[in-house]
Structures are given as C-alpha cells and as structure tokens.
C-alpha cells in the first residue's frame, strides 16, 4: 500500500538542498543550455503572473499526484506561474527535515518567438518539520504576485485551515467537492468568500447550456406550477450531480420557485448517458434535458407554453486546467 511518503519520490525533478533552491534552478537552466536543451533566454521567458501552491493531501495516491502534477504543468503553460507542490509524510518517525526537488520545462506560445519556461519547487515535509514549512514556502514565492492555494484530497478541512500563512494570504482557496469531506464547502473558513469548488467550475459548459436554454422563457413561466425537479446521473458523476442540482435550486429560487421537490438519484438500470433532468409541472408544461459526456451530445425537449421544442446541444466538462483558471479568476 502506498502512502503520501511516496508522493515526493514519484514526482519528477532534481533533488536539491532546501537552502539551495534558487541556485539549483539557475544551475538547471545553465545545464540545459549547455547541452542544447530548452532553457530561458531572458528573464521575460520566465515572467510569472501568479503564485500557485498545490498541496497534496493524505488521500492522494502516487498515480493521482502525477496526474495533478501534469494538470499544474498545463495550467502554468497557459498562465505562467511560480508553482510549489507540497507533499506531506505521515510517518511520525520521519526525520524532522524538509526535502526539495526542482523541475523546469519550456514551451512555445502563440509563435516561435513566444517561449515561456515554468519552474516548479516540490517540498516534502514530515509533521515534525511542519512549523518550518510555511517559512520555506514563503521564500519560494514571489511577494508581489497573488497566491492561489489548491488543497487536494484532504480528509479534514481543519487541517487545511491550520496552514494559516497559505490560507490567509491566498486570493483563492481551491477545493474539489468530489474529493473532499462533506463539510468542505460549509466549513467555517476565515474568508469563505474566497473558497472555490473545482467541481462547480468544471460544470461551466453544462451550466451555460442549461442557462441559455431556460433564459428564453420568462422567470414566472419556469416557476409557476413547478412541482418536481429530478436529476438522474451516472454513478461516477454523483459529486457533480449534487453540485449541479444545488445550482439549479438557486437559479430557480431566483425565478420565484419556493415549493418544488428536488431529487437526486443514479440513472436506472438500462439507462445510458451522463445526466437526465426533468421538471414536473401541475399543468401541461414539460421540460427534459439529457446529456452524454462520452459522445459530447445533449438534447432539450420542452413545452413551456409556446409549443413543443426539441433542440440538440453540446455536452462537456471543462478540462482540469481550464477548471483551475475558472476557479481562480472568476
């Protein structure tokens, strides 16, 4: 069985002394240039826009750590970032010392002249060195850039809040309710207004599609006589379905709805696709939306007083790196 102690070892990078991170990054690029590998040709190539800290929680597996590392790489290609990845060790007998790795990668932007290089610092820490961690993180970050803090697969939100430097300085705290405790969103954060849910962010295309279709009708038409709102989902999409239903409830409440029953359930045996949404009315009005993320297709079937309407639509989720951008900046 793997543990978070393995996360540091599986992530790519060059081992360096914790006190020599800056020198190690400079030497890494010099070595790359000496053998003809990609390296920044000027400070502009490493111009950064944000500080980004990815904190891997105790439920993270080595395979998942590698996946999220690649998400961070793709995000930083789009938004040049100073990236720090934190890997906890759960072994109470581990030496009270921090370990560090550095990683760099260059890529081309919109033209051959637009070369950007990103730098990662990966820190491994045991609980005995916990008190030194945030001081070291602060040294790795740029003081004049905003900080975005992603707490990934933590099992206790109180543990996240205990990292006061990161939580208090962050412009956004990112969590994913699909991989977090049930109280992740309701937890008493010091600044709840800066907490963003990646599950909500990756639903953006579906929320836009639903909102655009329903906005064709007056709010009172949508709310009048509405009795039930039933959302069925593929089993693997249960977290996203909970978020989507909560969003629907809020949007319909803004239309004046206050009595409808909202239900959530897995798709029944023999049913295919990803989501099925149906509104039940006291009169003859109907609304139904089905979406299949595997095929990228959705369909609306409705009669909300102006005659039957059938409309095909796209169905997708944001990519992980796009969801990060959405959660950070909007």
Describe the model.
The chain has 330 residues and is an alpha/beta fold. The protein has 2 domains: 4-170, no CATH class; 204-314. 32% of the residues lie in helices and 29% in strands. The chain has 11 helices and 14 strands. α3 (62-78) packs across α11. The longest helix has 17 residues, at 62-78. It is elongated, with a radius of gyration of 23 Å. The mean pLDDT is 92.
SSE succession? HEHEHEEEHEHHEEHHHEHEEEEEH
Q: Strand sequence of the main sheet, in spatial order?
A: 1-4-5-3-2-6-7-8
Ranges where pLDDT stays below 50 over 5 or more residues in a row are none
Question: Which class best fits the helix and strand makeup?
Answer: alpha/beta
The total of beta strands comes to: 14
- The coarse overall form would be elongated
**What is the radius of gyration computed over CA atoms, rounded to a whole number of angstroms?**
23 Å
Count of discrete domains: 2
Kindly report how far apart the N and C termini lie.
39 Å
| Helical content (DSSP H or I, runs of 4+) | 25-40%
Major sheet: 8 strands, mixed
Mean pLDDT: 92
Proportion of beta-strand residues = 25-35%
Number of helices: 11
